[in-house]
Amino acid sequence: MSFSQTLWQAHADLFESTLQLPFNRELAAGTLSRERFCHYMIQDAHYLVAYGRALAVTAAKADQAEALVQFAQAAHEAVVVERSLHDGFMRDFGITPEQFARTPLSPACQHYTSYLLATAWSAPFPVAVAALLPCFWIYAEVGRDIQSRSAPHNPYQGWVDAYASEEFHALVRAVCATVDRLAVDATPATLAAMRAAYTDAARLEWMFWDSAYRLADWPVAGPR
Fold first, then answer.
1. CB 9: neighbour CB atoms within 10 A?
2. Which domains are present in the chain?
3. I need a surface site. Which of 94, 123, 145, 207 has the fewest CB within 10 A?
4. What does the alpha-carbon distance between residue 134 and residue 111 come to, in Å, rounded to a whole number?
5. Neighbouring C-beta atoms of residue 185, cutoff 10 Å
């Protein structure tokens, strides 16, 4: 069993818990409220900018030219291609640029993006890659699961299809292959750090979706 497969197996219960979140159940049924989906879309668009930065920082630490290109291209995809996808959804759901700009990061989004950026800057390349993997992998598998049970005429089918696509899954397999390659020569301490980074990010994935369903905001107001 490869290192990435052991990571997935060890976190199987957490993934199942992610699938069973009310946000994902209702997304599959097409009954998720418009308000919750819009809250999610705004936060996810904020997230993708930070995720792109984390990918770019990680690319700069790459141990091989191929890995540098891999993560630099992934940063481009996160910022340009994915944002283009989100812009389409925002138009479809009536989210204006002004509404997006004035909506701050939720606590869960800020926590997750701060963690990824801090890890990308401070951790060795293998650990940074392990922290980035859950966003790729969990999104792909959630998308595929929801696609398999999506209700007819689901208003969110476009989102489901984007993350269930073979193109996106090919990207996930490439990142898993890099994780596995790095794990071969990693020290026990580095392997432990990679596992911990994956766990932290997988938990934050769960928190992100849970937060979107609860329309979570800061419990205290900032300055007026």
1. 10
2. 3-213 (1.20.910.10)
3. 94
4. 15
5. 9
